[in-house]
């Protein structure tokens, strides 16, 4: 090989590595936006933020790493689509068909998912925090429990209740989630709900033969069942429980990091 040819051949791999990632297929993007019919299209890396794609046909489309944040995908057909790494942050997917789609690594935070179909979906490593209307088979129990604990610590009791509820939907015999939700409900002003959750935790602990924790749950419920004028006023729920049961609440929130019992 001549020196000049050899030099060019040597540079080719370096040049290839320096090239940018595959660009968006603008022809397919225009087709989607104008017709909402793009089955099998290559829409990888497409910028579709706030796009109105209600009812769009995206069967088996490649949307890998596309940005669909805040997009309207209500009723869209995404069956079999490649949604790996896609951003659907805040997107409206109400009634969308997602059967057989690959959502690995997808960002579904704050997405609206009420009424979606989800049979055979792969969602490994997807981000679901704040998503609304998640089917009960979607998401990791560990993730929801971790988020709920973080919400409690940040005093975000609305989201704590949502995430503890998701744990309970997936693991209804997991008593610590009821204790955590009891705390969040009381802080949010729902005393009857807080009592009901503490009583349910007591029942579940008893069923497992855990008399010690059943007694703690009973003390929480009994204290909350007292007339409000008989309960401590200062410091809110956190200090109230700490004063009553020492560090019991914290024990419940940290003692069971993996709720697969």
Question: Secondary-structure map with pairings?
Answer:
Elements: H1 3-18, H2 26-35, H3 141-153, H4 157-170, H5 175-187, H6 191-207, H7 211-225, H8 236-245, H9 248-255
Offer a quick outline of the entry.
The chain has helices at 3-18, 26-35, 141-153, 157-170, 175-187, 191-207, 211-225, 236-245, 248-255. With 261 residues, it is mostly helical.
Description:
This protein is mainly alpha-helical and 261 residues long. The protein folds into 2 domains: 34-139, Pectate Lyase C-like; 141-255, Tetratricopeptide repeat domain (Serine Threonine Protein Phosphatase 5, Tetratricopeptide repeat). Helix content is 44%, strand content 0%. The chain has 9 helices and no strands. The longest helix is centred in the C-terminal third of the chain and has 17 residues, at 191-207. The radius of gyration is 25 Å and the shape is elongated. The N and C termini lie far apart (67 Å).
Helical content stands at 40-55%
The fraction of residues assigned to DSSP E strands is under 5%
User: Tell me, what is the CATH class of the largest domain?
Assistant: Mainly Alpha
Tell the overall outline.
Answer: elongated
* Class from secondary-structure proportions: mainly alpha
List unreliable stretches of 5+ residues.
Answer: 1-20, 256-261
Tell me the total number of β-strands: 0
Question: What would you report as the Rg, rounded to the nearest angstrom?
Answer: 25 Å
CATH architecture of the largest domain: Alpha Horseshoe
Total domains: 2
CATH superfamily of the largest domain: Tetratricopeptide repeat domain
